[in-house]
Design brief:
The protein is mostly beta strands. The protein contains 1 helix and 15 strands. The chain is globular and about 55 Å long.
Length: 233
Amino acid sequence: LRQAGSVYGGIFQAASSGSFLGTKKLAVPITVTSTIASRPPVPYPVPWNNWVKLDLKSRNIDATNNFVVEFVIEGDYPATNRVMVTDYLSSSAYHSHFYQSSASKLVYYTDSGNPGNIFLNLIRAYVSLPTGVNEVIELLPSSFNISQNYPNPFNPSTVISYTLPKSGNVEIKIYDSLGKEVRSLINEEKKAGRYNIMWDSRDNYGGRVSSGIYFYTIRSGSFAETKKMVLLK
């Protein structure tokens, strides 16, 4: 949280369709309170001390299915407390480097006033297993996956989400409709987890590409998958 105070929300079973993220109430309401007086100085210290933990084990939440964590944000920013966000496209390392390297990213949104800007809410979810041992693990994917980019169609930027069940080298490339490489987004070692990566419709030389159909491919070990996306201007 960005400053002292409380935010209110709930845990919901994830919706499979429709405009709402959550459906069945699993733990409602919940309250998260911070005693930290203000945002940390720039550049942000690492690790950042603004994380607030809320233990909900006594609520016996059913985490068998996918779930979402939702908070109600009221009032004008920055007058009220907020879930802190990080600017995905910021060139400033204090905004992005430490948190983008984490697999603990959930909801992102775009800024209509600054086209191309994408922000990530700094929220982490953990599950306690009923094994008789107080074992808390962070949720990790069980298989390789690359999701359909969002938004799609897009202009000028879009986000590609992917999951890794184990550590390994990850390579994601963008191709045009003729199969020519347009952009290499990533080619590096990654730990197991969930990740988001943004494409700003620029090629490997920094130029904006034209409208049309493009393909993105992920490769990690023996896993490879390709999906189609559409850039509209």
